[in-house]
Design a protein that fits this description.
With 309 residues, this protein is α+β, with helices and mostly antiparallel strands. The protein is built from 13 helices and seven strands. The strands form two sheets. The protein has a four-stranded antiparallel beta sheet.
Length: 309
């Protein structure tokens, strides 16, 4: 009897955890892509579970399609992100063709990573995906999302799965709103081959949100001004460290930080002037939040600094 109770508790815990994972994914997806339909939630999840094998049938054809996409799409047509995880488990990543157009990786690298990911072994069967999806849709139904054409989309997905298939396209609303142009890359390939190059060449832009104890405000401002000027003057990889005060509350500080790449940021953390600032102001800071942000027009940043000269 005791073993049966333990098994029931364990099963309930696992199912509850899985439901929370689904709910968290759906909430994130709809926050990022509010025009999504059930078709788009489904697509992200099957990409994460099944990869993109169904897209790789003719290597010359997929190269020609990527060439055409790169030549016909401008940076303004693309979402600002370079990559994002698929689905719930992040077993695969969507890598935007923006990475190629901005010179972060080569076209051949993206193509090879896409093909290698599609050809990777140990791919689940369609039956396994069907079973996984029907567990997920039970949780999604319970969320009562009121998505447009929900019942129609669900029936369409069921009809695709009933004939042993699983792949579908994004909804027209999603394509119109977000113009998806990406390739699916398996996580280990992405992390080992693509991410290091992206991080090496991508600027880090963040806002440090800081609240200072009032009695230390004068000393903190002096330290913040000093570390900002010292960092920009001494470190080639520091483009900007720009401290600001919130006018409505002078104890609230906002520091705009821009680093040339991840390596420059990591070097900055080891410098004597930063360490002196960090250790010297620990007791002054009431709260700290580092907010990483994605520039919508990174090419315009150079012009901004030129105009300030």
């Amino acid at each position: 009897m005791r073993k049966a109770v333990i098994l029931l508790i364990t099963l309930f815990t696992v199912l509850s955890s899985q439901a929370q994972d689904v709910q968290s994914f759906v909430s994130r997806q709809l926050q990022t892509y509010p025009k999504s339909r059930l078709l788009d939630l489904y697509k992200s999840c099957f990409q994460d579970f099944m990869g993109a094998e169904h897209l790789v049938v003719d290597h010359q054809r997929i190269k020609a399609y990527l060439d055409e996409e790169l030549n016909s799409v401008t940076l303004d047509d693309l979402m600002p992100w370079i990559y994002e995880p698929c689905g719930i488990d992040s077993s695969y990543y969507r890598v935007s063709i923006r990475a190629v157009k901005e010179g972060l990786i080569s076209e051949d690298m993206l193509l090879d990573a896409f093909i290698c990911s599609a050809n990777s072994s140990n791919r689940p069967s369609v039956d396994e995906w069907n079973e996984r999806w029907h567990k997920m849709i039970g949780t999604i139904d319970g969320m009562q999302l009121n998505l447009p054409q929900y019942n129609k989309d669900r029936q369409f997905i069921d009809s695709v799965l009933s004939v042993g298939k699983y792949a579908i396209s994004h909804s027209p609303e999603y394509r119109e709103a977000y113009r998806p142009h990406y390739r699916i890359v398996e996580r280990s390939i992405f992390e080992q081959e693509i991410l290091p190059l992206i991080e090496q060449k991508t600027m880090i832009v963040r806002i440090a949100e800081i609240e200072v104890y009032p009695e230390y405000l004068k000393d903190y401002l002096k330290a913040a001004r000093n570390v900002g000027s010292e960092s920009v003057r001494k470190e080639p990889g520091v483009i900007c460290i720009f401290p600001n005060q919130v006018r409505a509350d002078e104890t609230k500080i906002r520091i705009v930080e821009i680093y040339r790449n991840k390596e420059a940021y990591q070097h900055h953390l080891t410098t004597p002037h930063f360490q002196a600032y960090k250790q010297g102001t620990l007791h002054m800071v009431k709260s700290l939040n580092l907010l990483d942000i994605q520039p919508l027009t990174p090419d315009a940043m150079q012009q901004i600094f030129i105009k300030l000269q």
